[in-house]
Specification:
Elements: E1 7-9, E2 24-31, E3 37-41, E4 45-52, E5 66-72, E6 75-81, H1 82-90, E7 104-111, E8 124-129, E9 131-139, H2 152-157, E10 158-164, E11 167-172, H3 174-181
Parallel strand pairs: 3-11, 6-8
Antiparallel strand pairs: 1-4, 2-3, 2-9, 4-7, 5-6, 7-8, 10-11
Length: 186
């Protein structure tokens, strides 16, 4: 399957920009294969597309969570199994999965817009996800801190936890993901 056949282009503009006195912000919610739900700030999400596992070119000598690179619109983009990276970094039990060559993976193209310099495009990373849960508005005052009894690594990778539809959803620190990988352009 050609990645361009099934992609969704997302706008980096919020449909309801919060005013300074209303602490609402748009987040894109996803689910990883361990049923973990995460929310990412919408400004860090560029697009969603599908890619056949066989279209990913493995690169030896990189972190095991990096599946390789894929050609997306003429550019090589790293493909990350986000569930594996977080399991490894947070000391959680991994749940490895073996993909078949023709398996179609849903990927979320994220950007590290906080570290981009003027005139330099932001870093991009394609993260494999199990399910897309959509865009939600979150009142930033409802995001609570990571519990103190959790490993300090959790506070590095998650900005906090929020309840969405009676489920706890962790808010991902996108910059920490990029920092952990120390990505260079493929």
């Amino acid at each position: 399957m050609n990645p361009q056949d099934s992609k969704i282009q997302l706008s980096n503009q919020s449909t309801y920009p919060p005013s300074p006195d209303i602490p609402l912000k748009d987040y894109f919610c996803i689910q990883l294969r361990q049923s973990a739900r995460l929310a990412l700030p919408i400004e860090n999400v560029a697009e969603v597309f599908s890619v056949a596992y066989g279209d990913i070119c493995p690169i030896p000598g990189v972190a095991t969570a990096l599946l390789g690179v894929v050609n997306q619109n003429g550019q090589l983009i790293w493909v990350l199994e986000l569930a594996d990276l977080l399991s490894e970094l947070l000391g959680l039990a991994p749940s490895p999965i073996d993909y078949g060559k023709w398996d179609s993976l849903t990927v979320l193209l994220i950007t590290n817009c906080l570290n981009s310099q003027k005139g330099v495009p932001p870093q991009r990373l394609a993260c494999v996800v199990s399910a897309l849960k959509g865009v939600v508005q979150i009142d930033k005052t409802n995001i609570t801190a990571i519990p103190e009894d959790f490993s300090p690594a959790f506070s590095s990778f998650f900005l906090g936890v929020v309840k969405i539809e009676d489920e706890s959803v962790a808010v991902l620190n996108v910059s920490a993901v990029f920092a952990a990988l120390r990505l260079v352009e493929p």
